[in-house]
Amino acid sequence: MQLSRRALLRSGAIVAGLSLAPRVALAQSDRIESLIGRMTLAEKAGQLSCFSDLLRAPGIVFNPGAASGNTAEQLANLRAGKFGMLFNGTGVAGARTMQRMALEETRLGIPLIFAADVIHGLRTIFPIPLAEAGSFDPDLAERTARGAALESTATGIHWTFAPMVDVARDQRWGRVAEGSGEDTCLGQAMAAARVRGFQGTDLRDPTRMLACPKHFAAYGAVAAGMDYNSVDISMEMLREVHLPPFQSSFAAGALTTMSAFNDINGVPSTANRWLLTDLLRGEWAFKGLVVSDWTADEELIAHGYAADGRDAAKKAFLAGVDMSMSSNLYNLHLPALVEAGEVPVAAVDASVRRVLQLKDSIGLFDNPYRSMNAKAERTQIASPALRKLSREAGAKSIVLLRNDGALLPLKASPGRIALIGPFGDDRDNVAGAWAFMADKTIGVDLATGIRAKLANPKMLDVVKGSDVEAALPGGIDAAVAAARAADVVLLAIGETQAMSGEAQSRVAIVIPPAQQALVEAVAATGKPLIILLRHGRALALSGAVKDAPAIVATWFLGSEMGNAVADVLFGTVNPSAKLPVSFPRESGQEPYYYNHKTTGRPASGTPNEEYKARYRETTNEALYPFGHGLSYTSFALSALQMPATVPASGTLTVSATLTNSGKVSGTEVVQLYIHDRVASRTRPVRELKRFERVTLAPGATKQVRFDLTTADLQFWADDKWISEPGAFDIWIGTSSVGGLQGSVALTA
Ligand code: BGC
User: Fold this and answer.
1) Which pLDDT band holds residue 578 (cuts at 50, 70, 90)?
2) Does any ligand 1 atom lie closer than 6 A to the CB of residue 676?
3) What is the CA(214)–ligand 1 centre distance, in A?
4) What's residue 2's pLDDT?
5) pTM for this one?
6) Distance of CA 655 to CAs 192, 572, 690, Å?
7) Per the domain annotation, does 459 fall within a domain?
């Protein structure tokens, strides 16, 4: 990446206190040029092809249409140099065998690079990225990414297809679980932190792995939240909302990206020359590698954008896709396309150069067996330190949505507890989506975590009551009986991990009806209810779930889920996370996000207001807004300060005082939002620009100070970033609603 700081500022890549990572550059080398000079066209196409690893565990092909072949074919293809990368296999011994074959049994001896979908941990699983984003703690995200790299590289992985940096404003889309939620600023900070955590500053360090921010681009904007759907989007929305997390990832040193499945305004991302070449390599000066998503090149045919495999390979390649994933189209067609003069050989060489440079950047030519160390594989996997980190991250990702009458935290001897619901002692749904290589033996369920906190573990009754999507015979009766006998009821309800992630869009983001019926029946006992939501997205809560006095968003927290939840339930950890996605009142409000426009007819919130931008059945206010999350202590903000004016070239310093006004130590996430009152483009009602986690002892006070520049006040109009003189509202608050409000005038 050779972008100047000024260029990044202009492009809006530097926000939220992000700084430029030390330069990470792809190496130039004579060795690479000499290799390219000796390669046949078929060998070049091979380096530009990658497949799911069938030779090692888990050896699963998840997607339809894979051309990976069977194991015998894959071995033959390895010897014939038909791929430069394999992905989603683990194991040092197998990696060493394959690497030896690549070095000794292929004509040119080019080392393989091994990749994998390590999205939130490999064996030790950390919270799903969405949950972790709720910590508003980029340092934590950097540490869990570092942990994932330690484990992955100990089992022979060099490159992860992460972070997923798609901004997701529609909770029906199942892949919201994999990213950082609905906000761009939070998404940028998390994306950059994860890249730093995976890669570190020395790419040759065998305990570090390459990052691959994905899916480029606007995949989170698929229409109606249906996975793989089309994206029709304005340039303003693309530039302001969906692209900045990619820019932040590249600024943090990411050297690869993955082209998305979706089309953008009629042109599939994987054949989108404007996106992959003009913008990415031209305007942003990206020097790294573009890999297609799984068969995304072949899918150009289904999109109706390419006539056949040959046409698809040509269009994807000429648009800027260096490496084809799983379709085999480059092996099949690139050589002939070059021979027919339809694809310039120089372009093929440029892509091959990027692949070889990427391999060289992590030292594979000098040390082809890097990250293939049997001792590390024995000692670095699921280590106590990683499990401790997973538990810390889990507890820091839990959002206390509601806590009427200070029902939480529980005392060490809270009387009899009934733990009811399909997730009480379930270990199959603690990890969340994209954890198919997890060590399933280490997942901690809720019952185990809670029992470990109790003076008398026999005081916990665990009753399932219902399956996730179907009633259980006698289930409700058993649950009601347990609730009647209890002093407090915990209801562990929500979604399985298979209900979010890829291809798992939902039409209604509700608690499945069978579980809702369970909660209604249990609530009728009148016992104090604490809802423990399990979920990979924001949910629309209703009835007895919505009305419960205590509601906790526990997502999918990974290997230590039960312990992390118990830490928060019993007050060992004071909850501090905030919602990275808004909870609407009704599913039908989706896409629902805090940073919407005002419209010409904003509703005031009074019921039944006619001819206003609202629905008949509900008010517009979130049930729980973006940025919301309670603590066991209370915080007060005061003394908001900012200047009356700021010149275009100046720094705008905004400060406020945070006081822990409660009785226990706690952490608050202080959030700064802006609103441009009058502009030549309609602007969002609020936009998050800065945040900071502040930990205070009871009674303690801290002045929180944020520095903004004009770059923070900009928007995209007429093909460039601009800021316009005039008044801006500024809030410092503890969620996207309310807070201390002031204003500042930007002068010309
Ligand atoms: C997903 C990607 C993933 C790839 C490789 C695709 O189906 O969209 O996120 O990296 O498969 O497993």
Assistant:
1) very high
2) no
3) 9
4) 34
5) 0.96
6) 25, 31, 11
7) yes
Which entry of 293, 297, 360, 676 is annotated as an active-site residue? Answer: 293
Q: How confident is the model at residue 64 (pLDDT cuts 50, 70, 90)?
A: low
Cα of 294 from ligand 1 centre, angstroms: 6
Q: What does the pLDDT look like over 608-654, one tens digit per residue? A: 899 999 999 999 999 999 999 999 999 999 999 999 999 999 999 99
Same-domain status, 581 and 687: no
- 404 within some domain: yes
256 and 404 co-located in one domain: no
Same-domain status, 419 and 363: no
pLDDT at 18 over 80: no
Domain count, the chain: 3
Strands 417-420 and 488-494: parallel
Please give the distance of CA 623 from its chain centroid, rounded to a whole number.
23
Q: Check whether residue 654 and residue 572 sit in a common domain.
A: no
Same domain flag for 74 and 195: yes
In this structure, what CATH number is given to the domain that contains residue 716? 2.60.40.10
Does residue 601 fall inside a structural domain? no
Give yes or no for a contact between 127 and 397, defined as CB atoms under 8 angstroms apart.
yes
pLDDT in tens, 82-126: 999 999 999 999 999 999 999 999 999 999 999 999 999 999 999
502 lines ligand 1 (CB under 6 A): yes
Domain stops at, among 378, 409, 443? 378
pLDDT in tens, 360-373: 999 999 999 999 99
Q: Looking at the structure, tell me whether residues 353 and 408 fall in a common domain.
A: no
The verdict on residue 599 lying in a domain is no
Nearest Cα residue to atom 7 of ligand 1: 294
pLDDT of residue 57: 80
Q: At what angle do helices 384-397 and 561-569 cross, to 10 degrees?
A: 50
Whether 358 and 482 share a structural domain: no
Which CATH number do you get for residue 574?
Answer: 3.40.50.1700
DSSP 240-251: IIISHHHHHHHH
Tokens of 586: 């009704």
495 and 522 belong to one structural domain? yes
293 counts as catalytic: yes
Six-digit token pair at 124?
């030790």
pLDDT of residue 19: 35
Mean pLDDT over the full length of the chain: 95
- Residues 509/171, Cβ–Cβ less than 8 Å: yes
- Segment 403-422 mean pLDDT: 96
Give the domain range for residue 648: 635-747
Residue 19's SS3 state is coil
- Per the CB < 8 A criterion, the answer to whether 422 and 468 are in contact is yes
Which atom of ligand 1 is nearest the CA belonging to 325?
A: 5
Nearest residue (CA) to ligand 1, atom 10: 161
Residues 6 or more apart whose CB falls under 8 angstroms from that of 706 comprise 653, 654, 655, 672, 689, 690, 692, 732
Distance CA 332, CA 313 (A): 9
**Tokens (6 digits) for 505:** 């869009």
Q: Which of 347, 378, 409 is the last residue of a domain?
A: 378
Residue 21's pLDDT is 40
pLDDT tens string 295-323: 999 999 999 999 999 999 999 999 999 99
Instruction: Write the CATH number for 195.
Output: 3.20.20.300
